[in-house]
Amino acid sequence: MKLEPITIKDIAKALDLSIATVSRALRDSYKISSETKQKVLDYAAANNYRPNLMAQSLKNKKSRTIGLIISAVPNNFFAEVINGIESVASNKDYHVIITQSQESYEKEVKNTEHLAWKSVDGLLVSLSTETKDVEHFKKLHEKGVPFIFFDRITNAIKTHTVVADNKGGARAATEHFIQSGFKHIAHITSSANTSITQERLAGYYEALQQNNIPIDEAYVKYCMHGGMNQDEIETAIDELLALETVPDAIFTASDRLTIGSFSILKRRNIAIPGKIALAGFSNFSAPELFDPSLTTVRQPAFEMGKAAAELLIELIEAKRPVTSFKKIELPVELEIRNTSVRNKLYI
Amino acid sequence: MKLEPITIKDIAKALDLSIATVSRALRDSYKISSETKQKVLDYAAANNYRPNLMAQSLKNKKSRTIGLIISAVPNNFFAEVINGIESVASNKDYHVIITQSQESYEKEVKNTEHLAWKSVDGLLVSLSTETKDVEHFKKLHEKGVPFIFFDRITNAIKTHTVVADNKGGARAATEHFIQSGFKHIAHITSSANTSITQERLAGYYEALQQNNIPIDEAYVKYCMHGGMNQDEIETAIDELLALETVPDAIFTASDRLTIGSFSILKRRNIAIPGKIALAGFSNFSAPELFDPSLTTVRQPAFEMGKAAAELLIELIEAKRPVTSFKKIELPVELEIRNTSVRNKLYI
DNA sequence: TTGAAAGCGGTACCAT
DNA sequence: ATGGTACCGCTTTCAA
Which of A85, A140, B227, B341 fits A305 for a cystine, CB–CB 3.0-4.6 Å? Predict the structure, then answer.
């Protein structure tokens, strides 16, 4: 019994054909008599022939591998993104190498180099909160490696991008606070470097302005590492609580910040939303379970992963250089629950 | 300027050495004069030489890739497991291909074949809830592909395994209910096929027996797909509520089942723990945020991933056949919070 | 329509 | 200690 997988050579020998013919029968299809082709295909199927991917890769200089850089896997948003990516990648026979930056610029650079060395055919990246400079990506991009930036993107590299409607989501959440009667709405967000911070901040500002609420920079708190460590959030909340006019609502810009802030307020016995209301971006699966149930801005994470992967594979397999780039913006959903609605019970 | 990465051949030419010598200098180290070696190493470093992995793979018949089969990525437990796996894999220059079975036997088989075709050097697997038969793994295992089973394991294949102390965790949770005065403790668990179901069930039974509480099979509800769809859990709870003596506590066997049950009970306005107490396995990051805060049995997911990956790489790189296998059992933690403690407020 | 052979970038055996 | 070379499995050019 043959344990080793059979090769093209085995087929050639068995069918008394040349290796070249077998190879062509297996893919080209043109310039091969249909009988020969059928014979080869049949034999291949019967013997469960599978092309050796490493040999193909070596020859074709394509690894059918895509690299992914995100801040962390154990994160509701990114876990769903991965799911979306895998769904298209596995369909098209690509596989995905996942790397985590842990919000560190340095790690992001290392991961990039590592992925380049692994000769990925393209990269899917969501920038770390620390990242300001994208030279490490640029170098690769200029060598012809396709990139898709999603979620936290950069404009310094011309390529397709996939984002959520961050501004719209932030505006909606802030407006919801305003309409619920809150006057002093704070914003806890991530590092000022990232695109999502800027966009969400813009949405927050816009809602305030449109409602003639003065903007107060003191109400905006930045967490340099997106709340990777709880201390950042703790500090932000401390500072908010120390203000002359303590905010009556907090809008948080990410999953970690939302859950983190929630946890801190609760631990300190600050009534939510009685004392301070809370709402923010989050992809947690069951926000209704919290006490009180959590108002969230939910991003279509699966769809983002899917769209990003599709665009990347499109770039990888493009016959001619692509020069016009899309920016896909996916809608978000504001799901209103009790954390952000002050009702009789609390007043 | 050279865009293409340099090869061993380039080094040989530049240094006027043979390809063989360069290759040896780069790894063997023995039988190479230290000057030559140094020259090669220096040149390689200076020119940022990186061995072509596909060529190495083809030649060595090692892909430095490991396959992972889990039920789903967007799952607190598995997301942390992945994190643990990546932490050791990337350190040892392996990469991980993640596949999801979605609790489907059929998909598990497909994923296995797919991973085999991708010529992974070994597999890390947690069985789907549907899986009874492991022939698909056995075939590969007999061809010499190393396996590690973790979390949901099988005894039909002799290899290392990594599990949590499922029985102990289940016993502790059940005992906690008993000591808190609950008499009718139900158990919602996953498919009877999986090892974790059996072990957690055993722990549950043991606690009941040791406390002279009669075992009632009607109090044990199985969700064939581990609660992948909420309906399964809904049915289980319906059946429990329809019993003559409705249980006063429910012990749930997994993250999905715990969160799902919690959600259903809340939606139906069944007071927790006033009417029915709740506790279960869960790796959610902030169980104190729930209303009431959730009592959990937490598994060391990161450590499980880490241990599994380490063992697998050990097997892959073993010089001689390994014949003695370990079963690593990691401790779990019972974290008691309000869902499972009936206090004055609720009575 | 088919075959021979070079080559992708390494590794390792056999010589020297 | 170093060099020549076959080979891993496949693709593709060139020739027949």
Answer: A85
